Amino acid sequence: MDFIEKYINAGSTSISNILLHHYHQIGMSTSELMVYLELRSYIDRGQGDPAVKQIAEHLGTSEDQVYDLINQMVKDKLMVQKMKKSDDGKESLVYDFSPLIHKLTRLVENGEDVKQQKQTQNERQKLFTMLETEFGRMLNPIEMSLVNDWIDQDHYDIEVIKLALRETVLNGKYNFKYMDRILSNWDHQNLKTPQAVQAALRQFDEQHHYSSGQSKSTPQPSGHQIPIFKLDSLKDQKHKGN
């Protein structure tokens, strides 16, 4: 058998890039990673309890060192050792790396949460900057608290809040209460995404344009009415809903 055949027949051991790039973050040393790879190379070939002596030879270290590393991995909850009974009733030691996978899972999920939090914080800061630019002044603490409540308690989409700001500016109100009523009105009509709000605004504009060209005797088009964004109109609609 030539070298190429031996190379192919020896098989290969794969490692997830998540583990390769983050093993230090879950408390795993490089030496422990090498022991893990050695153990996996045997486990993947159906040998649940490989000879530590052979692993030590491959790594160029002592058996005691390999045992110490295995015990440390168990202590750090990167793996567990347990007995497994075969079909013929014989028991053998097996290595279970489920704890390592669980640690990686938590690491990735927490990382995604942190990333999302940073993104949300950046979007929030951009919103504050946009509000201050459009209003031409710094926001006071009460106004900042109101905006935070829109995001954290009312769960308004930040892009929807920007659309409410646009409507406020177009109507020349520059009033946070006016913005709040717009957002409440949209939420009451289940317009919770920027796409839904924009579609509703387009529909209102089309109906308003059509209605303005009709005589008083001409029947007006029916359908879902989008609120006219005037403060008095919003107040009237709010009173009607109470």
From TrEMBL:
Residues 128-200 form the DnaB/C C-terminal domain. Residues 15-112 form the DnaD N-terminal domain. InterPro entries: DnaB/C_C, DnaD, DnaD-like_sf, DnaD_N, WH-like_DNA-bd_sf. Residues 206-242 are annotated as: Disordered. Residues 210-223 have a biased composition (Polar residues). It holds the Pfam family DnaB_2. NCBIfam families: DnaD_dom. Belongs to the DnaB/DnaD family. This is DnaD domain protein. It comes from Limosilactobacillus coleohominis.
